[in-house]
C-alpha cells in the first residue's frame, strides 16, 4: 500500500519510514513494571503502587524508558539552559516523572494507543465484516507499536505533522505507514480513525494521562507529605508551644498538635480524589454518532463506545458535543488547588515558627544562605514551596475555569489549554518535594519554646476565669481582663490573684500548679492519635 499522496514530499528520513519495507520490529527491553521508574522518584505507598499497576494498556515501563532516552540526549543541558519554562530547565530534575505523561511525546503516544485499541475493537464487532478478527500475530504487531513506542517514533509523527499541519491526522498516517509491511493490517488500515473526530482521540488521551500521571506521580508525593506530617505530630506531641491568634500570645498548644492539624486537613482532601470520575467520550463530530450510524446502522454505537471507553479504565460520558466537556478536570484541579492552599498555609506557618526560633534549621554542608551574610540559614524550601504553590494554583484554577466553557458544539480554545495540564501539576510536584525537603531539615528548639511560655503567664487568664464561673464568682472575665490585658503578668502576680479567690482549697491547689507549659489541654493526646484519623489507603487514588 502506498502512502497518501500528501506525504510523498516528506524529508528522506520520513519517506523511508513510510516505505512498505519499514517493518515495525518490537524492541527488546529489560525494563518491566514499576521498577522502570527512576530510582530517585518519591517512595510510593503500597496501595498507590498497586493502583499504578492496574492502569490500562501496556505496562508503564515505557515511562521509565522515555526518561532514559531523554537523559541520553547529547544536547539536554543546552536545552535546559534555553527552556522558556523553569520546569523544563532549572527544575527539570524534580519533575521529570511527569514528562512521559504530559509532554508532547506522552500525548502522541496516548493517541497511538487509542487509535490502535479502536482498530482492535472494530475487529471484534461482528457487523463490521470488513475488519475481521486479527490473528495473534497481527495483534502482537499492533501491541508492539504501543509497548515499544519511543521518542524516535514521536519524531516521525512530528515530521508528518509538518506536512499535514494536523497533529491527530499525523498519528493516523504514521500508523498506516508503520503497518504497511503487515498485509493483514494493511488491508484494513483505512479503518484507523474510523468514525472518529480528533477529539474522540484527544479526550481519551488526556484522560489516560491524568489518570496514570496523577496516580503514579502526584499522589505518592502527596502521601509522603501526609506521612511526614504524621511523624512530626507523633514525635513532637509533647512539646508545649505558645499558640498565637492574630499574631498575639494565646492558649498554649503542642508542636505535634499543630502538625496533626495539617495532616488531618490534607488527608481529608485526599479522600475526595476517589470521588472524581475520569470521563471519556467517543461519539463522533458532535456527539451523536452521525457518521457511524450511516456507515453501519445495525451496530449499537452507544454501547460500543461505552465498552471501548470503559476498556481503557475510564468512565463513560454519554452526553457530549464534539468534546467531552471537561467538568471532571475542573473538579480534579479544584481539589489540587484546595490541597495546595492548605499546604501553603503549612509552609507559611513553618516559616513563622522558624522565624520565632521554635524550629532550628539543620545546616547543609557547602550550602550558601546569603551572598553577603555568611551566617544566614534561610527557610528556602518552604519559601520555594510557597511560591510554586502560588504558581500552580494560578494555572490550575485558570484551567478549571476555562475548560468547561466552549462555544456551541465546540471551539478550539480548549486545545491549547489542555496542553498545559502538566504545568499546574509540575509546579505542584515541585512544591511538594520542596516541602518534604524543608521538613527533613528542621528540629524542635525546646529552649526557645520554653522561653516564650515562661514570659506569657497571662495565658492562664482563660482557665482561671473559666473555673471562677463554675464557682459563681461574679464578673470573672472582667476581673481577669483588668489583671492581664496590656499588663506585665508574672508567676507571682498570677499566684497572688489565685490566692485571693473564694474557691475550694483543692481547686486552688490545682490552679496554683498550672503553668503556661502544662496548660495544653488534650493537645498531646490529639497529636499522638493522629494516625487513627488519617486514612491514606482509601484516599489519594483515582479508580
TrEMBL record:
Record key words, sorted: Lyase, Purine biosynthesis
Natural source organism: Sorghum bicolor (Sorghum)
GO biological process, one term: 'de novo' AMP biosynthetic process
Name used for this protein in its record: Adenylosuccinate lyase
Pathway, per record: Purine metabolism; AMP biosynthesis via de novo pathway; AMP from IMP: step 2/2; Purine metabolism; IMP biosynthesis via de novo pathway; 5-amino-1-(5-phospho-D-ribosyl)imidazole-4-carboxamide from 5-amino-1-(5-phospho-D-ribosyl)imidazole-4-carboxylate: step 2/2
Database matches in InterPro entries: Fumarase/histidase_N (IPR024083), Fumarate_lyase_CS (IPR020557), Fumarate_lyase_fam (IPR000362), Fumarate_lyase_N (IPR022761), L-Aspartase-like (IPR008948), Pur_lyase (IPR004769), PurB_bact (IPR047136), PurB_C (IPR013539)
Assigned protein family: Belongs to the lyase 1 family. Adenylosuccinate lyase subfamily.
Enzyme Commission number(s) from the entry: 4.3.2.2
Record carries keyword Disulfide bond: no
Amino acid at each position: 500500500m502506498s502512502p497518501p499522496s500528501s506525504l510523498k514530499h516528506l524529508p528522506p528520513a520520513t519517506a523511508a519510514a513510510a516505505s512498505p519495507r519499514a517493518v515495525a520490529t518490537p524492541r527488546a527491553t529489560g525494563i518491566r513494571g514499576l521498577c522502570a521508574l527512576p530510582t530517585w522518584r518519591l517512595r510510593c505507598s503500597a496501595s498507590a503502587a498497586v493502583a499504578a499497576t492496574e492502569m490500562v494498556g501496556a505496562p508503564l515501563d515505557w515511562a521509565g524508558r522515555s526518561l532514559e532516552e531523554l537523559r541520553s540526549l547529547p544536547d539536554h543541558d543546552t536545552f535546559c539552559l534555553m527552556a522558556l519554562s523553569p520546569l523544563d530547565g532549572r527544575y527539570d530534575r524534580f519533575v521529570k516523572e511527569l514528562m512521559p505523561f504530559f509532554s508532547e511525546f506522552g500525548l502522541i503516544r496516548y493517541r497511538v494507543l487509542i487509535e490502535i485499541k479502536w482498530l482492535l475493537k472494530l475487529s471484534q464487532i461482528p457487523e463490521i465484516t470488513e475488519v475481521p478478527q486479527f490473528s495473534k500475530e497481527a495483534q502482537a504487531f499492533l501491541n508492539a507499536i504501543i509497548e515499544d513506542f519511543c521518542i524516535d517514533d514521536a519524531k516521525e509523527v512530528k515530521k508528518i505533522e509538518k506536512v499535514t499541519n494536523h497533529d491527530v491526522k499525523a498519528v493516523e498516517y504514521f500508523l498506516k505507514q508503520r503497518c504497511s509491511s503487515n498485509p493483514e493490517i494493511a488491508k484494513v488500515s483505512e479503518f484507523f480513525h474510523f468514525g472518529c473526530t480528533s477529539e474522540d482521540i484527544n479526550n481519551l488521551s488526556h484522560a489516560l494521562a491524568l489518570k496514570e500521571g496523577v496516580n503514579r506521580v502526584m499522589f505518592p508525593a502527596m502521601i509522603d507529605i501526609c506521612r511526614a506530617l504524621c511523624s512530626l505530630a507523633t514525635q513532637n506531641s509533647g512539646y508545649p508551644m505558645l499558640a498565637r491568634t492574630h499574631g498575639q500570645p494565646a492558649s498554649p498548644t503542642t508542636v505535634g498538635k499543630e502538625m496533626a492539624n495539617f495532616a488531618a486537613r490534607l488527608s481529608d482532601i485526599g479522600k475526595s480524589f476517589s470521588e472524581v470520575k475520569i470521563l471519556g467520550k467517543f461519539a463522533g463530530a458532535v456527539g451523536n454518532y452521525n457518521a457511524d450510524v450511516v456507515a453501519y446502522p445495525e451496530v449499537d454505537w452507544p454501547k460500543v463506545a461505552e465498552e471501548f471507553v470503559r476498556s481503557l479504565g475510564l468512565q463513560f460520558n454519554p452526553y457530549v458535543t464534539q468534546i467531552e466537556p471537561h467538568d471532571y478536570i475542573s473538579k480534579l484541579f479544584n481539589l489540587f488547588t484546595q490541597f495546595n492552599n492548605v499546604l501553603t498555609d503549612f509552609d507559611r506557618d513553618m516559616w513563622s515558627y522558624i522565624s520565632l526560633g521554635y524550629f532550628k534549621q539543620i545546616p547543609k554542608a557547602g550550602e550558601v544562605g546569603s551572598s553577603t551574610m555568611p551566617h544566614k540559614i534561610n527557610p528556602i524550601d518552604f519559601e520555594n514551596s510557597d511560591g510554586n504553590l502560588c504558581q500552580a494554583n494560578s494555572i490550575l484554577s485558570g484551567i478549571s475555569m476555562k475548560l468547561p466553557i466552549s462555544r456551541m458544539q465546540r471551539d478550539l480554545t480548549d486545545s491549547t489549554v489542555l496542553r498545559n495540564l502538566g504545568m499546574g501539576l509540575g509546579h505542584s510536584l515541585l512544591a511538594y518535594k520542596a516541602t518534604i525537603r524543608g521538613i527533613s531539615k528542621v528540629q524542635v528548639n525546646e529552649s526557645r519554646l520554653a522561653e516564650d511560655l515562661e514570659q506569657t503567664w497571662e495565658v492562664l487568664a482563660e482557665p482561671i476565669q473559666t473555673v471562677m464561673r463554675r464557682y459563681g464568682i461574679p464578673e470573672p472575665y472582667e476581673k481577669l481582663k483588668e489583671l492581664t490585658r496590656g499588663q506585665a503578668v508574672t508567676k507571682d502576680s498570677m499566684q497572688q490573684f489565685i490566692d485571693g479567690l473564694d474557691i475550694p482549697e483543692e481547686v486552688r491547689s490545682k490552679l496554683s500548679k498550672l503553668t503556661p507549659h502544662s496548660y495544653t489541654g488534650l493537645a498531646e493526646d490529639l497529636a499522638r492519635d493522629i494516625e487513627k484519623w488519617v486514612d491514606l489507603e482509601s484516599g489519594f487514588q483515582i479508580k
